Amino acid sequence: MSTPHNAANPGDIADKVLLPGDPLRAKFIAENFLENPVCYNEVRGMYGFTGTYKGKRVSVQGTGMGMPSMSIYANELMEFYGAKRLIRVGTCGSIHPDIKLKDVVIALGACTDSNMNHDRFGTISFAPTASFSLLDAAYQLAAKEGMPAVVRNVFTSDKFYDDRIKEKTQLMANYGVAAVDMETCELYSLAAKHGVEALTLMTVSDSLVTGEACTPEERQTTFQDMMKIALEII
Length: 234
Prior knowledge:
Layout: E1 16-19, H1 23-33, E2 35-41, E3 48-53, E4 56-61, H2 67-79, E5 85-94, E6 104-112, H3 116-121, H4 132-144, E7 149-156, H5 165-174, E8 179-181, H6 184-194, E9 197-207, H7 216-233
Parallel strand pairs: 1-4, 1-5, 5-9, 6-7, 7-8
Antiparallel strand pairs: 2-3, 3-4, 5-8, 6-9
Helix pairs in contact: 2-6
């Protein structure tokens, strides 16, 4: 059964799925890391592919930007297509002076300014967190490969352009939060609801503290390192 957002039929998608926000990054992963990739989705240009990595069946599905878009694709993958292990591979902005360009941020949990969980839980402040087994595997492998990786909370924001971004990120940094993204809180919340494993791996592409940013070439090289980590542990 396909959905309004995904043309895949049952069985087209593996139970292990990488989730880049950018659909073109999904295409890049499929073409450069997967063996015999097959495109199962092009609806709204949100590419999805299934292939094999070291003999194991893996899918990669673009999710778009922001929690509402992540919610659509993650919900459908978990509820309709049987996804059991999902890893977001993306970028983030450092909001803490200890977190440098090209560091890998492994998201322990996600704070947010979104109302999506307030709508779900009312007066309860739910704390969405990563799968410990995936988190531990990612950290151990990153350390083995010599990648600078940190395990910290992240801040999932609804707004990319926010008049209060400095105020919000400084507050988060004061409480040890490492970086800002736009998807992790919803991914972790849905994983908890559906009883599946989820992890966010992100490379710091820019710093809201120093104003530094990676070049396109640096982003491409660092992204590939992060993709390999995700594929190895998934």
